[in-house]
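Posting this for the archive.
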Amino acid sequence: MKIPAIKKLVETYTLDELMAAEAAIVDEEPISIEVGGDDEGEQLTHVLAAVWILNDMEDNGTDFKTALREYTKKVRVSIS
């Protein structure tokens, strides 16, 4: 997971564009947006993180840094 790649997605694309990219990755189809990552797994991780962060920003009125912090907390809890 690379924070700069997630930040670029959040700043550049809409939620609909990101969700379409998620579906394309899962269906092993070409992605219509530029998603950083070493492989499809990392690209999917970046897209899912960006979707979660955008939803958190919209639902809770948070800024990017706060939403990112909340997302990384969830990731740490899930892997510990």
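The chain has a mean pLDDT of 95. The CA atoms of residues 37 and 67 lie 21 Å apart.
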